[in-house]
TrEMBL record:
<dbReference type="InterPro" id="IPR006139">
    <property type="entry name" value="D-isomer_2_OHA_DH_cat_dom"/>
</dbReference>
<feature type="domain" description="D-isomer specific 2-hydroxyacid dehydrogenase catalytic">
    <location>
        <begin position="22"/>
        <end position="113"/>
    </location>
</feature>
<dbReference type="GO" id="GO:0051287">
    <property type="term" value="F:NAD binding"/>
</dbReference>
<dbReference type="GO" id="GO:0005829">
    <property type="term" value="C:cytosol"/>
</dbReference>
<protein>
    <submittedName>
        <fullName>HPPR reductase</fullName>
    </submittedName>
</protein>
<dbReference type="InterPro" id="IPR050223">
    <property type="entry name" value="D-isomer_2-hydroxyacid_DH"/>
</dbReference>
<keyword id="KW-0560">Oxidoreductase</keyword>
<dbReference type="GO" id="GO:0016618">
    <property type="term" value="F:hydroxypyruvate reductase [NAD(P)H] activity"/>
</dbReference>
<dbReference type="GO" id="GO:0030267">
    <property type="term" value="F:glyoxylate reductase (NADPH) activity"/>
</dbReference>
<dbReference type="Pfam" id="PF00389">
    <property type="entry name" value="2-Hacid_dh"/>
</dbReference>
């Protein structure tokens, strides 16, 4: 990596059904050079040595042995979710690559939804709303 050049991060895509959300991609672009999987596969020889990280968003891209073998300078796989069950940690660590995740990112919203569901159930909120519409 040349001086002043941002570290390259492999992502599946930006936007669309499975890509990184556009707002999140804009934030990432402030600190990283994003390379989509399409760009990587279209010019593997040039891109493979630049990529130092893979950003996994909604379990994509799939991290397998073939991908790890094609990225000689890979240092970290950053998972944007809580769990890492979809990643083969033993295989990844055999390549000397670290794995990170965001364990507390959705703890508060999950608790909020849980409380809202319990309150709605205890107060029979859904039943009351439906009966207001019907009668």
């Amino acid at each position: 990596m040349a001086e002043g050049e941002l570290p390259a991060v492999l992502i599946l895509d930006i936007g669309g059904t499975h890509g990184v959300l556009e707002d999140l991609a804009a934030l990432l672009k402030k600190h990283f050079h994003l390379i989509t999987m399409k760009e990587f596969l279209g010019n593997k020889e040039e891109m493979r040595k630049k990529i130092q990280s893979v950003f996994v968003f909604e379990c994509r891209p799939t991290i397998d042995r073939e991908l790890l073998e094609s990225l000689p300078n890979l240092k970290v796989i950053a998972n944007s979710g809580v769990g890492v069950d979809h990643l083969d940690l033993k295989m990844i660590s055999s390549f000397g690559v670290k794995v990170t995740n965001t364990p507390h990112a959705v703890a508060d919203p999950t608790a909020d939804i849980g409380m809202a569901l319990m309150l709605a159930s205890a107060r029979r909120l859904v039943e009351g709303s439906v009966s207001n519409f019907l009668g």
